[in-house]
Fold Redox-sensing transcriptional repressor Rex.
Amino acid sequence: MSQHRHPGASGRAGVVPALPDLPEATVARLPEYLRALHNLAETGHETISSEGLASAAGVNSAKLRKDLSQLGSYGTRGVGYDVALLIDQIEYVLGLTQRRAVALVGVGNLGHALAGYDGFATRGFRIAALFDADPKRVGEEISGLVVRHIDDLPRVAAEEAIAIGVIATPAAAAQRVADELVAVGVTSILNFAPCVLSVPDGVDVRKVDLAIELQILSFHEHRKASLTRLPATGGSTLTALPGGLAAPDTQEAIGT
Amino acid sequence: MSQHRHPGASGRAGVVPALPDLPEATVARLPEYLRALHNLAETGHETISSEGLASAAGVNSAKLRKDLSQLGSYGTRGVGYDVALLIDQIEYVLGLTQRRAVALVGVGNLGHALAGYDGFATRGFRIAALFDADPKRVGEEISGLVVRHIDDLPRVAAEEAIAIGVIATPAAAAQRVADELVAVGVTSILNFAPCVLSVPDGVDVRKVDLAIELQILSFHEHRKASLTRLPATGGSTLTALPGGLAAPDTQEAIGT
DNA sequence: CGCGATTTGTGCACGTCTTCACAAGCGCCT
DNA sequence: AGGCGCTTGTGAAGACGTGCACAAATCGCG
């Protein structure tokens, strides 16, 4: 289903405009801009040019300007962007004006680390409850929170307005946990389990798989190694030892 | 991400073909296919159709076929793909035929969890060494590995062929660690610190930021909430409570 | 008050990714 | 052997994202 934009319907009365529907690629970059802006604010900057903010966020300046223009931004030509204003803008668009409650399910190896990760607290979220299915883990206290049994999820969800569920269970349990989260009204899930979740329409799932990230890097390693074995067109002097098909590890080959 | 491709290095005769340079989007999906294929192999499947594999991997079947065709695939029309053969193909392309050594820097909250995460070991990697800058942490044993001081990195890198560096330090230390990794020849970095790393050309960096993932979800939550408040086209004016349990009927499909 | 320096916002062209739709190929059954 | 149903591989078209280049807008200064 294509989303239709309302070109002229932005004239909503009030200071807070209706949410524009941003391109996904832009949404994915806004948090990075926000982090860079907070850094800039702490170092005393009141305004920042698109070039400066772009390099702080690790992107191209044209892309950044286009992204910010999507949210009807308020930059000043010849000057730049007001840092504080832009922070407010982005935080509003991302829905960070309220501190959203997060439920974390699975307090194993990774769950422990996530429960103690202060990046959540400092960037707009509050871990409201920890859950696990293992009775031996229920009752344990982690970072000031007591682990509850997953069966208590409905009751806790009724008390706290859980906005986001984080799944840090083994893959085998992830789908059932997702179903239970959806059942209590959670519509956003961050999944660390290496499996595909199926959820009804209207529920957003984002997946983080650490091994996949490494495998992508491995591909590039593999490709770089195979390139150095081939004679390059520019005649670089990097011809390593040609070990035939049994490729030895290209150790510290790149020396800039 | 800043790689340039070498034109003309294609059709190379021989048993092991030269690496085709795949689209990044395809590379990012191959690990997911691989995981699904391993599941299928364990459940006894010998062949699988593109439709079946696609649904197991959570993608569209046309996309999957195009992805696999990129690597000169070996499907059989009317039958499907040979599971074992496809696993070998993908593992070769991803460079997983050798078990790559990973150096993990920063054994704080997150680093501890990563050191104990068995998904690395089971999916083609070996954590070869742990490092930290804090003398109080040096010497500690985690999952059978002793934490070394970051200053020992050059010596360890000379012994083990470190292929990938994982940074799990605070943001303030990440850039220096990255520089040191690059200095000892590491050309692939997985960065968990919330900051932008600058590295020379030829070094790949992938970033995982847990708070950013939550913020992206927060945006969609915010948008969904604002949509339910507005009367949709032909709208049934059901006013859902914030965090309500009712599933509204007019939810837009959100690309994940 | 006007001019030049600077920086934003954006039209446009280009490249990448996705999706559809269908011909080509394969195995099975008669 | 031949036909039929099923599945892959791919051309083409459309959607999406990116980057250039420049007009429009703003500030500071003489």
Notes: Chain B has two domains: 24-93, 100-210. The longest helix of chain B spans residues 210-229. Strands of chain B lie at 47-48, 75-76, 80-82, 100-105, 125-132, 141-142, 145-149, 162-167, 188-191, 204-207. The radius of gyration of chain B is 23 Å.
